[in-house]
Amino acid sequence: MNNEEKKNRYYNSIMGYIEPGYKSKTINCKDCNEEFYYINSKKELLEIIEKNINEENNFGYDMVKLMTKFYYPGANSISFHEEKQICSCCYIYRDKKPWYIKCFR
User: pLDDT by residue (tens digit) across 48-60?
Assistant: First the structure.
């Protein structure tokens, strides 16, 4: 078996964790009102990159911040507390609890 077959098997195993009926949506954090995106396409990803990355700012900082603002099918964690409807940053600092990460595995 070559590495390509192993990689494809791994990628296909990740796809098995996607919620049935997963749809794109945007939710605002109830604390800070920033948007959190559930994305489902390359177009949506490019749109949120364009909206959230300012070329005049520090690229690394903007990317780190952006990575906490979206979830995509197959991701192994989410940076949004769905029950409380708040982003991970608000959850950490408001409730002084550890980072909320929902694992689907």
Answer: 999 999 889 999 9
pTM of the model: 0.75
The C-alpha atoms of residue 95 and residue 72 are separated, in whole angstroms, by 26
Distance (Å) of CA 5 to CA 1, 9, 28:
7, 6, 40
For 71, list phi and psi in degrees, rounded to 5. Answer: -130, 145
DSSP run (H or E) holding 49: helix 42-52
Rounded CA-CA distance 97/19 in Å is 27
Q: Which amino acid is at 89?
A: C
Residues 6+ apart with CB under 8 A from 35: 26, 27, 28, 29, 69
Query: Contact 44/24 with Cβ under 8 angstroms?
Result: yes
